[in-house]
Structure formats: C-alpha cells, structure tokens
C-alpha cells in the first residue's frame, strides 16, 4: 500500500508538472502578443534609461536615437516623447518638437510640464499665439490639485509653481499677439490688458524678476507710467544687476521728463553693461544718456545738481579696476550694489502712485 501511494504521489507530481508546462507553452501561443508587448515595454524603459544618460553626458544625437528606439518598442511611453521633444528644441527642429509634445499629451493629457512647453514652442517659435493661449488655459485647468496628507504628500509648491509658470508664459503670448496688431490700437491694447491680467495671476505664486519686469513692460506700453515704474522697481529689487529693468525705467523717466532720475538709471544700466564687457550696448546707452543730459541741462533742476556737483554717491566711491581693457567691479562695489542698485530712482513716487 505504501509503495502504491509513493508511486501514485510521484506520478501525480509528474502529471501536474507536465500539465503546468503544457499550459505555459499553450499560453505562449495564445497570449504571445501580450508577452511580446510586455517584453517590448521592458526594453523601451531600458532605452529611455540609455537616452537619459546620453542626455546628461551631452550626447544629444545618441539620446535621440535611444528615445526613438524606445518609442518603436512602446509608442505609449509619454516621457520618452517629452524628452525627445526637448532634444528637438535643442536642435531648433520646432515642428518635430511640437509633434513629440502633442503625442505625449495624447497619451497623458494631464502632463502639465509637457503642455506648457508645447504652448511655449507654439508661441515663441511658430507665433501661433491663439493656440498657445488655449493650451495654457488647458494646462492650468489640468494641473493636479493641491493635495496635502501629513508626512505622505504635499504638492503645494509644484501646484503653485506650475500655475504661475503657465500664467506668466500666457502673458508673453498675449503680449506677442498685441504686437501683431500694432496698427489696430484698440485691439492691441485689449491684448496687452489680457497680458497684464495673466501676469498678475502669475504673480500670486511666482514673484520673480521676469514677472515683475514684464508687468512693467506691459504697463509701459499701455502708457500707465506709475504702474510701469512700480513694477520695474520691484524687478530691480529682485535682480539689481540686470540692466534691462534699469534701462527701461530710465526710458520711462525720460518720457516723464524726470531727467535727473532718468540719468541715474541710465548710469546704472551703463555701468552694469560695461562691467560685463558689452561695449555696443554700453555705447548706445551713453549716447542716450548724453541726450538726456542735454535736456536736463536746460531745466531749473539742473542748477541744484551743479550746487551738489562735488558730492559723490556710493556708486562713484565704489572702486573700479580694469583688467585687459575690461572694466571690472572691485569687491568694495558690493556695498554700493546693495545700497544703490537695489533701490530704483524715484521709488517713493511710484510706490505712492500704486498700492498692492
């Protein structure tokens, strides 16, 4: 009896094992497409991994080849599509980039970063402002909502940042659209007002130099000098060593016939550019500065300047040296930057005219 049970047990095990093997072989034939798809999907992730490494090593063409191979194996890999789009942008192949971003969004409609980049290329490379503005609205709509679970998830920062980036770039698109309508004053102004609206929404979560500066430009174009000056000043507070805000503020003050303050900002813009060795822009700024000086010299305010001519400000006291013909700001200049460059000319005037 024991011998029989032993033989039966061994036979059962063998039959069971053979049955499993047969079923496995049958499944390979029955579900071969499924297994093939899974194997291709696994390989595609490997090629995406290779592509990411090539990108980090600054080998863009090899990265492109890897992403293309990954997508041949698994067309639904939306991150491979997105990375491929980014590389096409590097090569300035914008239409291929748009195609890659679009296909990534077909697979993953809530891929916020891809949609924002898609809209940026639509706006800045192909000047399709209407489509770009629509895509920014869609990106904002589909941004994953703020979720907060203590010690598990808190996406507040990414939620606010992505929303701010979308609104900021939408503002740029509205401004670009307004420039196309330059001859139609009312339509151009309407689009600029839409740009201001988008910038202001961006400002709620993205208080950066670029947002403040572009708000200043929009108000400058809309002929709202108090608002333009206020936002130029806010931009200067954020990034005191970027010449553009100083220069635009100088132009604004010149138009307002506030020549003394305009001269002050032109000097700052020129000094910043000169320190960076940008001779052409520096010469242009000083040509405009000479023009403002001539206008200023015939005003009554000029007399007060003459009386205080021997007084020097911290900018003049700052040590400046020359290395190989290029002006270089010495270490002692840091204090002057903090005190002078970070505070724009006529700041109180603009602050009194605009309330947050």
Can you characterise this structure?
It is elongated and about 110 Å long. It contains 18 helices and four strands. Helix 4 runs antiparallel to helix 5, helix 11 (225-238) runs antiparallel to helix 12 and helix 13 (259-275) packs antiparallel against helix 14 (279-296). The protein has 356 residues and is mainly alpha-helical.
Given the helix and strand composition, which structural class is it?
Answer: mainly alpha
Describe the global form. elongated
Q: Alpha-carbon distance between the termini?
A: 96 Å
Which whole number gives the mean pLDDT? 78
Output the strand order for the largest sheet: 1-2
Strand content: under 5%
The proportion of residues forming helix, as a percent range, comes to over 70%
Radius of gyration, taken over Cα atoms and rounded to an integer in Å: 31 Å
Number of helices: 18
Number of strands: 4
- One letter per element, helices H and strands E, the order comes to HHHHHHHEEHHHHHHHHHEEHH
Major sheet attributes: 2 strands, antiparallel
Low-confidence stretches: 4-9, 146-155, 308-334
């Amino acid at each position: 009896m024991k011998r029989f049970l032993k033989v039966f047990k061994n036979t059962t095990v063998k039959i069971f094992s053979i049955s499993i093997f047969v079923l496995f072989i049958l499944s390979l034939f029955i579900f071969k497409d499924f297994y093939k798809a899974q194997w291709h999907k696994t390989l595609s992730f490997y090629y995406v991994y290779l592509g990411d490494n090539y990108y980090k090593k600054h080998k863009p063409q090899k990265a492109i080849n890897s992403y293309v191979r990954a997508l041949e194996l698994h067309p639904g890999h939306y991150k491979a599509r997105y990375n491929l789009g980014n590389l096409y942008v590097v090569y300035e192949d914008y239409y291929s980039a748009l195609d890659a971003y679009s296909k990534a969004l077909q697979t993953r409609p809530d891929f916020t970063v891809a949609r924002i980049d898609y809209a940026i290329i639509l706006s800045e490379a192909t000047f399709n402002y209407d489509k770009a503005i629509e895509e920014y609205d869609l990106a904002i709509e589909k941004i994953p909502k703020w979720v907060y679970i203590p010690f598990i998830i808190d996406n507040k920062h990414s939620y606010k940042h992505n929303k701010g980036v979308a609104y900021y770039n939408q503002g740029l698109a509205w401004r670009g659209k307004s420039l196309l309508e330059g001859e139609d004053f009312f339509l151009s102004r309407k689009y600029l007002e839409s740009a201001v609206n988008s910038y202001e929404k961006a400002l709620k979560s993205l208080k950066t130099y670029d947002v403040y500066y572009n708000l200043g430009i929009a108000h400058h174009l809309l002929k709202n000098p108090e608002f333009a000056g206020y936002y130029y000043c806010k931009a200067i507070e954020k990034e005191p060593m970027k010449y553009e805000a100083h220069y635009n503020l100088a132009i604004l003050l010149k138009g307002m016939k506030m020549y003394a303050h305009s001269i002050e900002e032109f000097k700052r813009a020129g000094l910043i550019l000169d320190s960076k060795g940008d001779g052409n822009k520096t010469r242009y700024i000083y040509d405009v500065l000479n023009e403002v000086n001539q206008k200023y010299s015939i005003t009554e305010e000029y007399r007060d300047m003459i009386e205080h001519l021997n007084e020097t400000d911290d900018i003049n006291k700052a040590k400046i040296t020359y290395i190989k013909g290029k002006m270089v700001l010495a270490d002692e200049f840091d204090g002057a930057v903090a005190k002078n460059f970070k505070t724009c000319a006529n700041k109180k005037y603009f602050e009194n005219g605009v309330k947050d």
